[in-house]
Amino acid sequence: MSPNVGRRRFLLGGAVVGTAALATACTGNDPESSASQAPAPASTGANDAPGQKVVIGFSAPAADHGWIAAIAKNAEATAGQYSDVEFKAVEPTDDINTQIAAVESLIAAKVNALVLLPNDGQQLNQIARKASDAGIPVVNLDRIFPDKLSYRTWIGGDNYGMGVAAGHYVGAKLKDKGVANPVILEIQGIATLPLTQDRSKGFADALKTYGFAVTARQAAQFTVQSGNEVTGNLLQAHKKIDAIWNHDDDQGVGVLAAIKESGRGEFFMVGGAGSANAMREIQSGSGVLEATVTYSPTMASSAVRLARLIAQGKGMTDLVEHQVPQSLTLASETITRDNVDEYLPLGFES
Amino acid sequence: MKGTPTLAAVKAPAALTRSAGALAGRRHLGLIAALALLALVGLLTQPDNFATSSNAVSVLALASTIGVITVGMTFVIIGGGIDLSVGAVMALASVWATTLATQSYGPVVMAVCAVLVGTGAGAVSGLLVAYGRMVPFIATLAMMVAASGLAQRLSDRRTQLVKPENDAIVALSTTRWLGLPILVYVFAAVVAAGWVLLNRTTFGRRTYAVGGNPEAARLAGIDVRRHTLYLYALSGFCCGVAALLIMARTTTGSSTHGNLYELDAIAAVIIGGTLLTGGRGTIIGSILGLLIFTVITNLFILNGLNTSDQLVAKGLIIVVAVLLQRRGLPGTT
């Protein structure tokens, strides 16, 4: 028995040491060049001149996706550009209860404006309403609160418009080529989400204007692995494909890997969201990915800018009105090889 | 020291394997019939797409990742345990192996790292079960939650791409020998090694003995606790290999990999005729069970059907398989 114990201790000790060495050697994840600058604005007006000092509170879900990670990063970087903004971000969380408590702490701190991306608009409506009632203007980011008394301004993306933009790109291109009865595939995110249904409806509606329809539609789960599995099977189901629209560039990494593995290339593909990775792929022009339609996390930068203007009582320079609008729906922009250089700095890392 | 009990122990599991083998042989026929039925459905609904070599390759490549995990799971379940942490451990290994720091050492270190992380996590579960006397369900549930949390932490919940200079990893999926991607050969090698280990070695006989009746195994001189530790480490090792394959297929490491793999792997093992109470089961059965699942996914997508209905179909198959097993084994526990 005793030699066994000795050997076991030795093995265990070795394992512990090895694990510790591995832990210190292999978990570092700092990129060589951390490009943490704020997205460059489209244009700057006189509004950028330093004004009255304001405190902006910020709360968002914990990142489960490159997109959410970029939201938090963009908000902070933009706030950092202004000498008159003090940025108070609370710890991101996926738990509704924790986010409510976090927003409460921001209300108690009497911030001048709040930028909120709720985990769920319905469930956080009460606390946003409480902030508004306390006289703190709330800039609601993307996931909308059902009660208009809960926020001062909503800014977010356009899921239907994303589908429309993708549909127009695919439709126009196939029409130009003169393809009759094209095989058009659609790889969705989570099929049951309203945002996914909006995207699919926009895509179908835009294709209809060209007389085309979606041939087959499959849902992945917004993950690389599910995108990979679904695409592997879809490629088997359709021997000749003309175009693919994939809703999400993060899962698109898996989609592209499956396409590369199959060696197929008779079709072109359009992505969604606008990740830096997808943009580099478009720029290289070596694969099937030709374009992506944006649902850009730069909206967080814009939201912080709006919150600052609202807190300082300013309007938007290009508009006649003295106050910031109540609602801003961002257009889904189409990124192709021709304009990708312009967008690359805005892309988010997945 | 080791007199009569050892003799009995060697004889008993051997007899058990033989009778189990005969039973399993019959059950394998059922599984093969089920696969043939699915193939018939495929031929009827998709005559042009189903019975092509490229579709067969696609199904095998899809089955490879989870297939490797299923082999490890079969050992654990035959040994009387269960491992709920497989999906999370695979995700953790894939993330750990694709951090920028690990990637700077090149593809070989990445592969070794994935396997070591998997084996290490499995060994921790094994220690908790064998020496901490925790119920396997609880110990591996804890490992599942912790590994998934650690994977999220390491990756900052981002998708980590395999860098171009480490393309040797991706080559496992893109390079083909005789028409098959290398990862299918890896899968085949793991299945073959698993089969030999389970059927032709003392380790395999001990696994049946430990799962069938741990007390008898202990009296027969088997160090049950150490053997249990080995079984979980083996399952972790398989997760590490699977992590390597998923990195090859998706070109990424991510904390979202392996979602619900534990359920798919356990289901495949159960359909394959392995008793959840341990002591009886086969690798071939598990692999056939897994292929049934993979072919169903393939059939649903080929026919453009809803992915949610697929889950319902899989649930039904588990129920039917277990009901058939109960009828086939009257009087067994």
Characterise this structure:
The complex is a heterodimer of chains A (350) and B (333). In chain A, 44% of the residues lie in helices and 15% in strands. Chain A is of the alpha/beta class. In chain A, the strands form 2 sheets. In chain A, strands 2-1-3-4-5-11 form a 6-stranded parallel sheet, sandwiched between helices. In chain A, strands 7-6-8-9-10-12 form a 6-stranded mixed sheet, sandwiched between helices. Chain B is mainly α and 333 residues long. Chain B has one domain (4-328): ABC transporter involved in vitamin B12 uptake, BtuC (Orthogonal Bundle), CATH 1.10.3470. In chain B, the strands form 2 sheets. A two-stranded antiparallel sheet of chain B has the order 1-4. In chain B, β2 (176-177) and β3 form a beta hairpin. Chain B is globular and about 60 Å long. The model of chain B is unreliable at 1-16 (pLDDT under 50). At the A-B interface, α1, β7, α7 and α8 of A face α2, α4, α5, α6 and β1 of B.
Which properties best describe this structure?
heterodimer, A: about 350 residues, alpha/beta, Rossmann fold, 6-stranded parallel β-sheet, 12 strands, about 15% strand, B: ABC transporter involved in vitamin B12 uptake, BtuC, two-stranded antiparallel ribbon, globular, disordered N terminus
